[in-house]
Amino acid sequence: MKIFNNLLILFFITVIITSCNNNKSVKENKEKLDSAKYKTIEKLKIAINGETTASKKYLAFSKKAEKEGYSLIAKLFLAVSKSESIHAKNHSETLKKYGYMFSPTVSTFEIKSTEENLKNAIEGENYEITQMYPEFIKVAEDEKLPDAKGSLTWAMMIEIKHKTFYQNALQAITVKNESTLPGQYYICPKCGNTFCKQTLVDYCELCMTYKGNFIYFM
Ligand SMILES: [Fe+2]
Ligand SMILES: [Fe+2]
Prior knowledge:
Layout: H1 2-30, H2 39-67, H3 71-97, H4 114-142, H5 146-174, E1 185-187, E2 194-196, E3 215-217
Antiparallel strand pairs: 1-2, 1-3
Bound molecules: fe (ii) ion (2 copies).
């Protein structure tokens, strides 16, 4: 009986401590972070601008590919455009948690031939994978902001997939064999993860969303 009473006391102490900690983190999240102190704020804004521009650019590239008769590449650009918009949304929501509303600025971009557009897309993804995101993730990690680190890391992991999809597309049109490319794409609505039929999984490996909730591009 004494052991039972002790366990009961221990249980209530644990509940009280957990509740206090939860209240503390909610309060911390509601406090606006000082942008002069936290470099992550600026990095999130840059990432939102980049992702918003990428989304609009790929939408334009999709239309161009359609005009040139590359319907499968048009579908790829369309699906990835959606993915980038989800990255922008996730970064924006993170920024909002830190107390900042932000309207993105879209940079200008050129629409060329689909082959050149693919090269441009590969270059953009490569920059994000090798420079931008690793640097931003390090800043968020150093400033101990796990939400920002999480959002930036998800985006980087997915940009790696985008680069591969674009490289395969470029190779296919170089050898004039677009028909070897995937005909369907699936986008995770929570993190923007990108799949084709061959790489589709039951649950998104990043955010665990079930495939039945994915956005289909058929
Ligand atoms: Fe991307
Ligand atoms: Fe996901």
